[in-house]
Design brief:
Strand content: over 45%
Structural class: mainly beta
Shape: globular
Radius of gyration: 23 Å
Largest sheet: 9 strands, mixed
Number of strands: 34
Amino acid sequence: MKHRYTMILAAAATLLVLGSCELALGPRSEGTIILNLGGGPASRAFSDAPFDGLPVFSSVTVTVSGSGMPTASQTVPGTAASVTLQVPAGPARKVEVYAAVDWASTPQTPQPTLAKAYGGTVIVDVAGGQKVGVSMDMGVVETKIVLPDRWGASRIADSLSGPVTNPGGFPFINEFSILDADYEFDRFGRLFISRPDSGLLSRYHDLSVGDGEDIPVGTPSRLAYDRNTERLYFAYLTEGIELRYYDLMDPVGFEDSVYNAVPDLNIIGSGIAVDSDGYVYLPAYYAPANGNIVAKLSIVYNGEFYESRLAGYSTFDDLGLGYWITSGEPYFENLVVEDMRFQEGVLYIAAGEHDGAPNSPFHRGKIVAVQVSDMSKFQEIGWAHATYEDPIQNPATQFYGPKRFLAIVPRKLVFADEGNDGTSEINRVVEVDLDSWSVSGIGLEGVVTFFSNYSC
């Protein structure tokens, strides 16, 4: 299957030849990494629609890290032709690019104005005296914050402190279906919104001009984007719940089901994610495990159609997605998995519980980090040992109920957190720093009313 790539072009081949000649002179402790930035939009070409080229960048930051070396970083203006970094020689040098967008200076249309920066990552080996030209697959690495509202008046925020705008042009999402609706960005910065109330995916480039395109796909629910295959996977609401995908590479669009080839596996459909290797993760009930699991599925073409096969799983108990009730006959109380995100090599799960009473203080949740290689939990944050009589005591570190991941931000998670503190409804946006694994910001309280009504 054809792939779409956005490339930072490799340095000229002559540099590689010179590098090999210099290697013959003897070992050296440093090598050179060179990225050709093109110096203008003409050389930053996407391979196909909807873009004529990459946007104009206000600045480009290149960072190189690796074992046995201090992190090297350089920031240049977006008009720079190239970036050159001297780094200690060694294997597995991680080269990361962060290119901030200057939409005001970008001529092409349509513009995905929610995208704030493009970037990419590549791993290279650097020998002493070698000059290494680097190319990489580029995509959106930072976006603005989408603030879905259960009354259909979604808004956009630049950051946790605002400003907040209402660009208009959003589809109306019915109050009774917003719990199943979801939002997802593709690698170009286009926003996809599932609309189970009307059986549509809505695709947007520039929200300020209301340029949405409605795609009929049945009853789409939670979404996950696979940049390797340019597919948008989604949970399909029917008598049961199916896994389906929409092919973004097909000029006219193509939507099809993924056959569930795992006996006794029933998809729950309240969260979905795709990792960098194309594995799909979702919550499900699995009879052999006698309970709920987070399943890791490989999507395989069997010669006639695509089918899902179980590549691994962990139970809700193993991942801490619930707790044991020990009074009377012991049983495990599951949390509701609300959303999932695969980011920078880790699967993050947003989960919580609400007792259903409008003014009860029993609202709490957590974010769980999962190592996908063995489906093991290695961190969690936000959980409160609340009871009906003892509500959350520290809102600065404890969550009322994470609902959706709302933005793409390097090394951070940004999500909607909602519930009730015993006196009033809570609607806020929380940011978690992935390096320190701590709450790094809370903001936008009360700007919108997110998904469920927990008012007194």
